[in-house]
Fold this protein.
Amino acid sequence: MDIVIILGAPGSGKGTQSAMIMQDYDLKPLVVGNILREAIANETEVGLFAKSYMDKGDLVPDEVIIGLIGEALISGEFSGGRGVLLDGFPRNTVQATAFDAMLHTKLSTSLSCIIALDTPEELLMERMVGRLYCTECGATYHTTYKKPKQGNTCDLDGSNLIQRDDDKLEVITKRLEVYKQQTMVLTSYYSSVPCYRNIPATGTPEEVYKSIRQALDSCLS
Ligand code: ADP
């Protein structure tokens, strides 16, 4: 099973690029933020617990997230295809270390490709402020850069688009701070791994995706 990680700050375009990757490569998405938002919508115990952290822009505690990832990967839900594309995990070195151990001991595999999107900070804020999100399928849009075709509805399933609770200005500022304090270090954590690829993410989504394809094609067998 191929395991691909996509790393990047909030607003770096992970979601947009993941959607394009999935059209071309037989990888199933494991999007931690979407799993958490679904748990919140279903008012599960994990969802209610996670909401209090997410609404403040904090990371949900590691043991909960590591548990969710372990369960998902071991469930067999991701077998059958080429592998899995992880978006939103790991987000700090505790999660990365636990994930390394999980891959070796429970899944007998290792990382196939690590894509690190490199985006200047000034772009991140404006990308997030205008972001809209489909309540049904999780697709993302932007009030300036990626307008929905019809009003405030999803191009894919016609459902309502909303702003995420954590895309409000004060929460965005906190999420960027958490990223700098805890997640950014993962680029050096992984930089010595042969399948690590740093991708400048300032161009159009198509330009960025071209570099991602080159990275994936050089790493996946
Ligand atoms: P973004 O990457 O744009 O911040 P996500 O949807 O990936 O958006 O994450 C939203 C929120 O979900 C985060 O701010 C955090 O509270 C929580 N979250 C997502 N992934 C993790 C993770 N690996 N560890 C802890 N919390 C997480």
Q: What stands out?
A: Residues 10, 32-33, 36, 53-54, 57-60, 65, 88-89, 91, 95, 166, 175 surround adenosine-5'-diphosphate (CB under 6 Å). The mean pLDDT is 94. The two ends are 11 Å apart (CA to CA).
